[in-house]
Amino acid sequence: xxxxxxxxxxxxxxxxxxxxxxxxxxxxxxxxxxxxxxxxxxxxxxxxxxxxxxxxxxxxxxxxxxxxxxxxxxxxxxxxxxxxxxxxxxxxxxxxxxxxxxxxxxxxxxxxxxxxxxxxxxxxxxx
Length: 127
Known about the structure:
mainly alpha
C-alpha cells in the first residue's frame, strides 16, 4: 500500500519523467530498495509538489544547481530531460547553464552544456 507522500511524489515525478520512478527503483532494488522510495517521497512528494513554483521553474532551478555542483552528470541529464518534458525550451536550458559560468565557473558550465547537447541529440534521434 502506498502512502500519501509516495503517491504525491510519484504523480509529480511522472509529470517530469514518466519512467523515472521505474529507473530509480531498478537502480536501487538490489542494494537499497527503501532509498528508491525516499527518492520519490522527499524530493517529489514533499518539495517539488509544493505550491509557489511551477514545475518549469523548479526544473530550471534543478538544472542550475546540478550544473553548479558538477558532480552527477546522469542526474543533470535527467533534469535537463525533465525540463524539456515540462515545457522548457532548449534555449531556456542553455541560458540557465551559461549563466552558471558566472557563479560556478566555466568548467562546470562547459560540463552542463555537454550534458545538454547529449540530451538534445538523444531527443532529436528519437523523432
